[in-house]
């Protein structure tokens, strides 16, 4: 779990330091202040530099230029795509150009990002270091990064992209058409951390059927049913049925209706709750990331949903990060955070764009209560 968060050089976040985090965290701010960017950065951290995650983010933002520039040099297209991750799209090879995301630690030089508890991404120049046996057969092949000490001795180099966490790293060659095609490139070792990322428009995700299969006939299935009762009190059961070979659809059984109904027919709210809770019960000991929490949800149900999220995040040891523009969402969050029955720490973090620099204001539970009681703007 993250007790603090430092982000450097990732998209609009040149340098953002959040000094402390809670178990459940709500991020607010105007448009273009980096709320979704923080969630992406945490996903990169939780995913240990998985290149499939990186290229998914690029594709979602229309920045996977290899798909739209089929005749362009693959190295140029890959560099153009990956440069989208960096502040001001800078393609640099120095330490000050590295993307880093992780927790901070106290050092002799003050609070700095922990190298062992952070993920880093950077462009590199490298060469293939090859060793052969006496018969000339290649025994080892190693990608060695060029730096100021060996660059002049090795004028022939290739461009690469390094992902690193602690002592574990991987160098991706950028001279291929689809450099990530070999599947997952995860540099984490012996990690059981998982995460689920619910995007803004994810009212009904395609993977919901698989997530439900993971928890069917367990106590977690009842957690899902109880959450759906926030909107439809007569909910008895849900299931996923196959409409065709590629699509499964959620159906619901209500005590008040004899027939089985498609869940889509019951509106965005109940489908959004299903998506959130299925994600939540599938990331034990990990992270739940929700972009624009309030999407599809009437203000009257948001506080009840926060109550479920607080309860299950404690039971399943999950750290939650959500964004919002909604005053009702903030009020519901504050009411549950400061309720006598809640034992979890939570934070509200507001982001402000000040002359192009993103700054944060952190609210503890008590500070948030004062702000809401006195109608102080926290969005």
Which features does this protein show?
alpha+beta; 6-stranded mixed beta sheet; 7-stranded antiparallel beta sheet; 9 helices; 379 residues
Which structural class fits the helix and strand makeup? alpha+beta
Radius of gyration: 23 Å
Low-confidence parts: 181-192
Average pLDDT works out at 87
Strand content: 25-35%
Characterize the overall form. globular
Helix segment count?
9
Helix content range: 25-40%
Biggest sheet overview:
7 strands, antiparallel
Oligomer: single chain
Distance between the termini: 26 Å
Commentary on this structure:
- By secondary structure, this protein is an alpha+beta fold.
- Helix content is 27%, strand content 32%.
- The protein has 9 helices and 16 strands.
- It has helices spanning 35-46, 51-60, 74-83, 208-215, 219-228, 268-280, 299-316, 327-337, 365-373, and strands at 5-10, 13-18, 24-29, 99-107, 110-132, 138-145, 158-165, 168-173, 195-198, 235-244, 247-254, 261-262, 287-290, 319-323, 346-354, 357-363.
- Strands 1, 2, 4, 5, 6, 7 and 8 form a 7-stranded antiparallel β-sheet that branches. The protein has a 6-stranded mixed β-sheet with strand order 9-13-14-3-15-16, with helices on both faces.
- A hairpin with a 2-residue loop joins β1 and β2 (13-18).
- α7 crosses α8.
- The longest helix has 18 residues, at 299-316.
- The relative contact order is 0.15.
In short:
With 379 residues, the protein is α+β, with helices and mostly antiparallel strands. The protein has helices spanning 35-46, 51-60, 74-83, 208-215, 219-228, 268-280, 299-316, 327-337, 365-373; strands at residues 5-10, 13-18, 24-29, 99-107, 110-132, 138-145, 158-165, 168-173, 195-198, 235-244, 247-254, 261-262, 287-290, 319-323, 346-354, 357-363.
């Amino acid at each position: 779990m993250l007790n603090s968060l430092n982000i450097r050089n990732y998209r609009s976040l040149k340098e953002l330091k959040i000094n402390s985090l809670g178990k459940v965290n709500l991020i607010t701010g105007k448009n273009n202040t980096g709320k979704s960017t923080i969630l992406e950065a945490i996903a990169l951290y939780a995913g240990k530099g998985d290149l499939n995650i990186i290229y998914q983010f690029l594709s979602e933002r229309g920045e996977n230029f290899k798909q739209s520039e089929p005749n362009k040099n693959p190295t140029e297209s890959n560099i153009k795509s990956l440069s989208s991750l960096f502040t001001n799209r800078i393609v640099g090879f120095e330490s000050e150009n590295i993307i880093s995301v992780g927790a901070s630690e106290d050092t002799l030089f003050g609070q700095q990002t922990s190298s062992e508890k952070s993920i880093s991404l950077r462009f590199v120049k490298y060469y293939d270091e090859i060793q052969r046996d006496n018969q000339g057969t290649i025994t080892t092949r190693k990608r060695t990064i060029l730096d100021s000490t060996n660059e002049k001795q090795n004028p022939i180099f290739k461009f690469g992209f390094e992902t690193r966490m602690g002592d574990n790293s991987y160098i991706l060659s950028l001279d291929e058409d689809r450099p990530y095609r070999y599947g997952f490139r995860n540099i984490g070792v012996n990690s059981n951390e998982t995460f689920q990322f619910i995007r803004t428009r994810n009212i009904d995700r395609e993977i919901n059927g698989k997530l439900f299969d993971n928890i069917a006939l367990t106590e977690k299935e009842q957690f899902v049913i109880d959450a759906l009762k926030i909107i439809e009190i007569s909910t008895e059961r849900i299931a996923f049925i196959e409409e065709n070979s590629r699509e499964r659809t959620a159906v619901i059984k209500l005590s008040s209706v004899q027939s089985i109904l498609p869940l889509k027919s019951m509106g965005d709210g109940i489908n959004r709750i299903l998506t959130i809770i299925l994600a939540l019960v599938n990331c034990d000991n990990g992270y739940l990331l929700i972009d624009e929490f309030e999407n599809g949800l009437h203000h009257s149900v948001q506080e009840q949903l926060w109550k479920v999220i607080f309860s299950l995040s404690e039971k399943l040891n999950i750290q939650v990060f959500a964004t919002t523009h909604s005053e009702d969402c903030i009020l519901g969050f504050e009411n549950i955070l400061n309720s006598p029955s809640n034992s979890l720490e939570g934070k509200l973090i507001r982001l402000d764009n000040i002359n192009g620099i993103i700054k944060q204001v952190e609210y503890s539970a008590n500070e948030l209560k004062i702000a809401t009681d006195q109608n102080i703007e926290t969005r």
